[in-house]
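Predict the assembly for these four chains.
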Amino acid sequence: MTPRIAIQEAPFDLAEETARLTEGRSDIGGLASFVGLCRADDGLAAMVLEHYPGMTERAITRIAEEAAGRWPLFGITVIHRVGRLPPGAPIVLVLTASAHRAAALESCAFLIDWLKTGAPFWKREELADGESRWVEAKAADDAAAARWTAA
Amino acid sequence: MTPRIAIQEAPFDLAEETARLTEGRSDIGGLASFVGLCRADDGLAAMVLEHYPGMTERAITRIAEEAAGRWPLFGITVIHRVGRLPPGAPIVLVLTASAHRAAALESCAFLIDWLKTGAPFWKREELADGESRWVEAKAADDAAAARWTAA
Amino acid sequence: MRVLYFAWVKQHVGVAEEEVAPPPEVRDVAGLIDWLAGRSPGHAAAFANRKTIRAAVNQDFAGPDHPVTAGDEIAFFPPVTGG
Amino acid sequence: MRVLYFAWVKQHVGVAEEEVAPPPEVRDVAGLIDWLAGRSPGHAAAFANRKTIRAAVNQDFAGPDHPVTAGDEIAFFPPVTGG
């Protein structure tokens, strides 16, 4: 099982990514997905995502491999968009496939929790009034990621 | 927020269902989905799903309302197929939308755990050798559903 | 009183549903099971192992002590296996 | 030694990356930060609050004690906010 990892400006297609994981096989019993979208909070005009090319892919590959070691997975897909995204736009997709639902659901939650704290992406909010500000990291995200190591 | 609940023989379209929940809004930050598929274990030729029309919709509506009371959700979709399904076919879709990822992920897991034990569906396996057998309920499924009431 | 059967309970009984008029001493789900089990060998087979039977009264899950009255819709089935 | 900057660290420093040749007494991430902070007012502003700075050495997260040597790729950035 080789995780599919992509960093791209283009949108992703959930149906296409699902088909890519399931096509031609009948051993998958559960497919879990998470899509993170750009919320239009506080007069947001656009979200601009920057990343560290090279390290990003490397960091995501490592955590995907960790997920594959912790749960019996048949497929992992992580797609993270970068660049300028309007409110409502999908930002990130995590998709996991397993024989059973618990492995798919838990690994999907693990991957998105970890992506929030362990992959080199930075978000900048462009506001309707022309101002711009960097999104600050949240303690809640660190706590969410930490619960997977406490277990 | 009115949950979308459907019991149908026809396949569902994950992309269409996702679009239905997100279209025209930009307050959704996380969208979690689970798709359960028919695995081809032990020479399975087809899975035949029976349900209790009327009670099924009623039971799923009730648990969707419970999920909406426990998590701040913008959307819930539950589609469960019935009839004869070949190996590899999608059986069930649970889709939840919220401002934040934890609410979407947790409510999605809650709904599928509960569907396994609290909605009147029965699965019969048709085997390649012509035999047929009813799937037995699993203690593990009861335990998975129970963890949501223990919390 | 309308009684519905699902899955292997239905296969044993041989019908998906039937109208029944149990005597007045049948007051709850457990009593109805006892009475139904005597109706035919198929019914007896269906209800042979009470532990594997679940019931619903008017489309809500119901335990053995749940009251049943004329006009109710009562269903018997194995533990559910959906999802 | 190649140094990369991201997000507001990059905005303060004014460049996305630079080649630097620190003196031999610069042996770890913390030492490199001290040395870089003296290169310009922009660098000083970028590194003013060390607690908000994260580092990577050769594309792995690295703490202040992590050694740095000529030929390394070293990056400085705020806590990450992806996902």
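Chain D has a mean pLDDT of 97. Chain D has three helices and five strands.
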